[in-house]
Amino acid sequence: MATAENLLDLARGELGTVEYPPNSNRVKYNTAYYGREVSGSSYAWCAVFLWWLFREAGASELYYGGGKTAYCPTLLSFHRGQWVTDYRPGDIIFFNFSGKSNARHVGICESYDGTYITTIDGNTGTGDEANGGAVMRRNRHRRYIVGAYRPAYEEDTMTQEQFDQMMDNWLSRRAQEPASDWAKPYIEEAIEAGAMAEVNGTIERPRDLVTREELAVVAAKLL
Length: 223
Known about the structure:
Structural class: alpha+beta
Number of domains: 2
Low-confidence stretches: none
Largest sheet: 5 strands, antiparallel
Mean pLDDT: 86
Strand order of the largest sheet: 4-3-2-1-5
Number of helices: 8
CATH topology of the largest domain: endopeptidase fold (from Nostoc punctiforme)
Distance between the termini: 53 Å
Number of strands: 5
Radius of gyration: 19 Å
Strand content: 15-25%
Shape: globular
Helix content: 25-40%
């Protein structure tokens, strides 16, 4: 069954996969896509990673759209009729990290909080977002998004209990992520002002959700 969560489960199972040797684009997804082992700069594989996920899920037609491609701009053009801006888990997200409007990279959405989007991508990395050589979970500001489409997934029959467990797992993972670089100076300032000392876990879990009660404590301390 090709649901968004099935695709994401497949993607999570691939986290940590890297091309070898480094900077070669020699990776199992390319081997499957081209039907032979390939290497070289002509074989960037972020879009190929998505092709592999949809193929493994038995839903290649949801990836193909207008035809099979390993090129981000072409993949984007195939799906313009499915364009979305209310990003949800399972959406296919196109990025450009240089301020331009063309699609330079693509990944699958795991979560979106209205400002930051978390995706699982092939061929990314901390040193090179668009050609980093690894399957990784990445968290980025929405300003880097240049487009997105929502595949016509089958209806998910997830129970409320399963959904609650999925959300608990996601919130737990998110809470353990380190603070964003842009937020660190503000966190340090709030700590020095004593505004966070009474909000249990705020410092240790910098990206956890904050209740109105906790927000009231922080605001009162800063006044």
